[in-house]
Amino acid sequence: MMVHPTARSTASDFSSLPLYKHAHNQIYPSSAQSSMNFRQSSKPAALFDPETGAELHRHPDLWFDDGSVICRAEDILFRIHISQMCRHSPFFRDMFSIGNPSNSVLGSSIYSKGGPNDFENCPLIELHDKADDVGNLFVALYDGPHFGNNDQDDFRVVSGVLRLSTKYLVDSLREKAIAHLSTAWPSTLKGWDAREDVARAYEMETGTSGARLYPSPLAVINLAREVDAPALLPSAFFDLSRYTYPQIFDPCAQDPLYYPSSSSNSPSPPPSLSSTSPPPPICLSLGDTQRLCLGKEASQHAITSLIQSMSNSQSIRNSGLQLQSAFSLTHPLTHGYTSSLSGSMHQSGHYHHHRSSSAAICISAAACRKDFSELVDLATKHYLFDRERGYSDPLYMADEIGGLKSEASECKACAKSLETWAMRERERIWRLIPTWFRLGSDTGSASPERTSSPPVVDI
């Protein structure tokens, strides 16, 4: 950032300008010549950088005639109000309080040609930021943040606002931007499920992968590192781990992580605001690349552990029964069949509650054992061998497994048992994600846990 001091223009300098003459000497032009001069003088002058000769452009919406400061970002000029900047940003408030802006006016830093200067006595501040980001920040300061649906276009706007609101200490905008991004990159399992529901709806509506709705998790990870927003990291790393290594590090045009240099679906920006160079490739730091590899391996191990635990639960009945009993007494989702579990414990001499219902009693032990064996074989083939949808997503896999028996069996007790186990496993997996990716305690990491066997009902 740089403020350019120049000499102040005098009243006599203004009197030589056509616009000054018309504004002060002739309100209503009396001749065609004076009318033509007025039209010519009202056209803004072309602006150039005297050092490079590059043309500078006034922002079409953020150039206010009564603005008291001009901010330059790349080749775009913003004429805004010092009071608006100082109101929201302690950074700008302190900067303007140190010096007298009236003593730092435009001059040699910008050259005008073909018309009068319409920014006399305005200080110039050079911002070493992207023009699009600066524009989005100023729009949010004037009109308030109006974010979209967390798609790729919305992310470009929100990330710019978050980046500069962090840099210039606009805390209110920073908090709103992080809260908005957290709906797509949540810190809770409930929020993650809501995010995935939106992605599936997008997939059904457009016929394309739901992953194309959201921005690249690579960009989200880098943004979270840049602005110190660690709450966004666990879901971003987990989302990235669901892709293959070639899709992450060498994507082709068909991969969701591939970003072409231009998008035909996006509206073209004004020529003065568009960039001619393609965006740089998105890469992770060495440390985050290592975290990705470690977490991706842990995620794959979780999938095999889930399948293995389904198999083990059929042969270790006593362990599973004790697990279900302890879980059913504390989990609100299992209160519907606590009484029948109590009856089972009563038979073993450990509990003394009356068996009031037989709703959770397996109606066909042999058939259910066969069903569980077939489910294990099906999951092994689908996720481990055929690598079908969900093979790299333990949360998706656990959700699918939890509903398989209810679709293939009439035994509601065993189906409920499997569903409850799957729900608990999904919660356990979610708590472990920060640990998988070595993200530390600031993201809510948990200590390692063992995969439990599905609770077994009384068969």
UniProtKB/TrEMBL annotation:
<protein>
    <recommendedName>
        <fullName>BTB domain-containing protein</fullName>
    </recommendedName>
</protein>
<dbReference type="InterPro" id="IPR011333">
    <property type="entry name" value="SKP1/BTB/POZ_sf"/>
</dbReference>
<feature type="region of interest" description="Disordered">
    <location>
        <begin position="259"/>
        <end position="280"/>
    </location>
</feature>
<feature type="compositionally biased region" description="Pro residues">
    <location>
        <begin position="267"/>
        <end position="280"/>
    </location>
</feature>
